[in-house]
Specification:
Shape: globular
Number of strands: 52
Distance between the termini: 59 Å
Largest sheet: 12 strands, mixed
Low-confidence stretches: 1-44
CATH class of the largest domain: Mainly Beta
CATH superfamily of the largest domain: Galactose oxidase/kelch, beta-propeller
Structural class: mainly beta
Strand content: 35-45%
Helix content: under 10%
Length: 679
């Protein structure tokens, strides 16, 4: 059996060393009982997933630093001694940021990660915050392999990235994690090597530099300004032990390649495992979770959080969706707030009020999970549809319609063909105009359950009527806890997941993503990545047509906490040699705020063949009820001026913010123009 060796530093317990584990047995950090015996609380200790490679011996390494204090030289950070550290100059002057630490390993390795151990003397000064990591084979040409922000504590940090040959490693500290001063310190830097390296094939897409977050991104939402909000729970890597009154969040700006951190306390809400929906104004409506009755609202325009009305029924692990009238429907969620009876209710953003819907019972959508109702009503696949209806496509094998008008109503919609219960699978509305939904994967039970590769297309018709369900060919790999994202082309990108559902484990990780094509119903494998994305991972479409994939874990002292993300560039953005393909661009659009039925005039810089609207997404626990795609037929074309009609139904063109793309004959999309469908 292959083995992987990982360096670990549990210095709060006085332990230092190296552990080799079989790939099928993940390294496990000390238990909560051990930490308690040492006088520590689990939530105060952050454990990151080790880099997936073999620790490179530091023998013969040399370092170059931009600054050091005479009694704390750079060599201290490669001496395998946790009690010594490198410190930039602080006397007689404070050397200004940024600071660099460059390692010459004296030989070229196929590197795939580094470890950073902050100083261990009880002083936090100099902990690295914002940073960049570069590699080089010749100390001349440098490649960015990671950037982002580390959490401000003394625990071991790991940054994993896609395998690349390198002799030199450079860590550039851009900020001090606590903004205490211009210093940088490090007790130890380690580097990891993969056993082999295969250059990625351009026709299978490519993965970006790793984005380090100061938290495990379990939930995410795309803002109309293109920035991505992510959050964990009350702290960076755990959801157990908090008082329910705060949430650690972070914002990634793809345009600037920056990551920032924000602790939200004013709403008194631990927003772990919530329902998430976007309202007509792009506000993120976050409900329930660890603080099961709460509602918190993120307003990206005002850059603030405000408290919303409390749910009528406390819940967690529920799902919610925007409706055709602009209200937000939610149902299920026995993970918190008591078990059973989590019937439907609806939120009106205009009046900031929740109302019970007694005609919308949760019972018809329960799975047969062996853990009981605690798991049977989790993570519904919900889609707002015409005339205030909501379609529930899964994860139960039974499908249902919920009418949110008046006091609500429910009627069955048949079974999802031969599919069984598919907890933590995926459902994606890739063609809203035609009412088409792709469903994939999942498992009969939430945990300790074999994953499926099944795939189906559901075609909705009249509201309340049984849909048509078509069985198509399976995915290449069975998956539970995967993420599936619709692209402007109508293709669906699928990443991560496990071959057997097991929360907080990376055993059986599916590292090879797939791309589904609606024209052929074929699933094509894409370039593999090295970082597992399983339970508590995320996936979102970005405004440039790429896909953000990240997270996994949030299990305290476990070894599967992934404080990072990557961006996948689909093949439609690449030439045959891997260089960026030329994009069309939208030079103007006749209206950026409109209603369904509007006719848009779109001007482009070059001829295009298709336009598409993709609604902004939110995601947690594989559920993304906000994303959907509308294909727009273009007419005209003289002078690269086109017209397109928006479907004349709020059930198809849900109120809210959408990304407008145009695509050329190669299906290469433009950068998105942000538009708003107003109610």
């Amino acid at each position: 059996m292959l083995q992987t060796c990982v360096s670990y530093a549990l210095l709060l317990l006085g332990i230092w060393g190296e552990v080799c584990n079989a790939l099928s047995i993940p390294f496990v950090a000390p238990s909560a009982d051990v930490l308690k015996a040492e006088g520590l609380k689990p939530q105060e200790v952050t454990f990151a997933a080790p880099a997936d490679g073999t620790l490179i011996p530091q023998t013969g390494w040399t370092v170059a630093v931009d600054s050091f204090q005479p009694n704390a030289p750079g060599v201290n950070a490669i001496d395998r001694g946790p009690n010594t550290f490198w410190h930039t100059e602080w006397s007689p002057i404070n050397a200004p940021l940024p600071h660099t630490f460059t390692i010459d390993m004296q030989a070229t390795y196929n590197v795939d990660g580094i470890g950073y151990l902050p100083r261990q003397d009880g002083n936090s000064n100099g902990n690295i915050g914002s940073h960049q990591i570069f590699v080089s084979t010749d100390n001349v040409t440098w490649v960015l392999v990671a950037f982002g922000m580390y959490y401000d504590d003394s625990t071991q940090k790991y940054t994993s990235f896609e395998t690349i040959p390198a002799r030199y490693i450079q860590i550039k500290a851009l900020s001090e994690a606590g903004n205490r001063g211009p210093w940088t310190t490090a007790a130890e830097f380690t580097v990891f090597a993969a056993s082999s390296y295969t250059p990625p094939s351009p026709n299978q897409g490519k993965w970006s530099a790793t984005i380090d977050f100061p938290l495990v991104p379990v939930s995410a939402a795309l803002h109309p300004n293109g920035k991505v909000l992510v959050w964990s729970s009350y702290t960076s890597s755990d959801f157990i032990g908090g008082n329910g009154g705060q949430t650690l969040t972070s914002t990634f700006d793809p345009a600037a390649n920056t990551v920032t951190e924000r602790l939200v306390t004013n709403t008194g809400h631990d927003m772990f495992c919530p329902g998430i929906s976007l309202d007509v104004n792009g506000r993120v409506i976050v409900t329930g979770g660890n603080a099961s009755p709460k509602t918190s609202i993120r307003d990206p325009t005002a850059d603030n959080w405000v408290t919303g009305a409390q749910l009528k029924i406390p819940r967690g692990y529920h799902a919610s969706t925007a409706c055709s009238d602009g209200r937000i429907f939610t149902i299920g969620g026995s993970w918190s707030g008591g078990e059973g009876g989590k019937n439907g209710e609806i939120y009106d953003p205009k009046s900031n009020a929740w109302s019970l819907l007694p005609g919308c019972p949760v019972a018809p959508m329960l799975t047969a999970d062996t853990a009981g109702v605690y798991r049977q009503d989790n993570h519904g696949w919900l889609f707002g549809w015409k005339n205030q209806y909501v379609f529930q496509a899964g994860p139960s094998k039974a499908m249902n319609w919920y009418n949110t008008a008046s006091s609500g109503a429910q009627n069955g919609a048949g079974n999802r063909a031969s599919d069984g219960d598919s907890m933590c699978g995926n459902a994606i509305m890739y063609d809203a105009s035609s009412g088409k939904i792709l469903t994939i994967g999942g498992s009969p039970n939430y945990s300790n359950s074999p994953s499926k590769s099944n795939a189906y297309i559901i075609t909705l018709g009249a509201d309340g009527a049984n849909p048509v369900v078509t069985t198509i060919g399976n995915m290449n790999y069975p998956r539970t806890f995967a993420n599936a994202v619709v692209l402007p082309s109508g293709q669906v990108f699928i990443a991560g997941g496990q071959n057997n559902a097991q929360p907080f484990s990376d055993v059986g990780s599916q590292l090879t993503p797939e791309l589904w094509d609606p024209n052929t119903n074929a699933f094509t494998t894409m370039t593999p990545n090295t970082i597992p994305r399983n339970y508590h991972s995320i996936g979102l479409l970005l405004t440039d047509g790429t896909v953000l994939v990240g997270g996994g874990g949030l299990c305290g002292t476990c070894s599967t906490n992934h404080f990072d993300a990557q961006i996948f560039t689909p093949p439609y953005l690449l030439n045959a040699d891997g260089s960026p393909a030329p994009r069309p661009s939208i030079t103007s659009v006749s209206a950026t705020v409109f209603t369904p039925g509007s006719r848009l005039t779109i001007k482009t810089n070059v001829p295009v063949t298709l336009a598409a609207l993709v609604r902004l997404g939110t995601t947690t626990h594989t559920v993304n009820t906000d994303q959907r795609r509308i294909s727009l037929t273009l007419s005209g074309g003289a002078g690269n001026t086109y017209t397109a009609s928006v479907p004349n139904d709020f059930g198809i063109t849900l109120p809210g913010f959408w990304m407008l793309f145009v695509l050329n004959a190669n299906k290469t999309p433009s950068l998105a123009t942000m538009v708003q469908v107003k109610k």
